[in-house]
Amino acid sequence: MATRALPAQRIDAERRFFTGMAIAMVLATFIGFAPTYYLGAAFNAKPLAAVTHAHGIVFSAWMLLYLGQSGLVFAGRRDLHRMVGTAGAGLALLVFVLGVWVAIDSGHFGRGTPGRDQPAFLAYPLTNITVFAIMAGTAIWKRAESAAHKRLMLLGTIALVTTPLARITTMLGSPAPPPIGGMILSDLLFAALVLFDVKQRGRLHYVTKWFGGAFLLSQPLRTAMSHSEAWQNFARLLLA
């Protein structure tokens, strides 16, 4: 009986874990963007450009879709999950396009944070959105492989929420620069996946090991890249 129960217990644990992670990331997104977007009127936030509003709507839609898709799996409705997933692929493309657009646009015409090295800073949002695109694209390709698909989608969404997590570190008065603080908090989300794999599987899933490892490696690389002469020249061309 115990041997037969194990797969069901593992499936139940996976459903709880991935749904819990989705809830945590939706909350982080709301908290991080509340002062400037969701509750902007209450905080007297400055007006946003139309493209930024579009990005906010699409970003929010992705987070709600991710939560909804996790909820459908939790409820055992994989049929609906697969149907909604088709629309999700198009939304992921919009997230990428608008993410790149807003990252570059926010540095134009002095709209970036005063005193910030905008070419250096640009490396962080562009890397985040690129990591998301790689993870989400691979997840769509691996959609028939449930364990790989859900881990890739999780890693891609963690890359997205690095930005609101960075804002949360600023709210908490962290001495670390926001991009660094955001990466540290995103690493905690990744650590939760590592611990889950070890506890439930006794080893890391190959996605957690290799794609998660690449996710971690991208962090020091983007920091080093942001101050390189090649990147600075490229970023200035984008922001011109």
One letter per element, helices H and strands E, the order comes to HHHHHHHH
Flag low-confidence runs: 1-5
Kindly state the mean pLDDT as a whole number? 90
Determine the strand fraction and express it as a percent band.
under 5%
Largest sheet: none
- Cα-to-Cα separation, first versus last residue: 67 Å
Number-wise, the strands total: 0
Q: What is the domain tally? A: 1
Tally of DSSP helical segments: 8
Radius of gyration: 19 Å
Shape: globular
Describe this structure in words.
- By secondary structure, the protein is mainly alpha-helical.
- The protein has one domain (2-239).
- The chain is built from eight helices and no strands.
- The protein has helices spanning 2-38, 50-74, 78-105, 118-141, 146-171, 178-201, 206-226, 229-239.
- Helix 1 runs antiparallel to helix 2 (50-74) and helix 3 packs antiparallel against helix 4 (118-141).
- Residues 1-5 have low confidence and may be disordered.
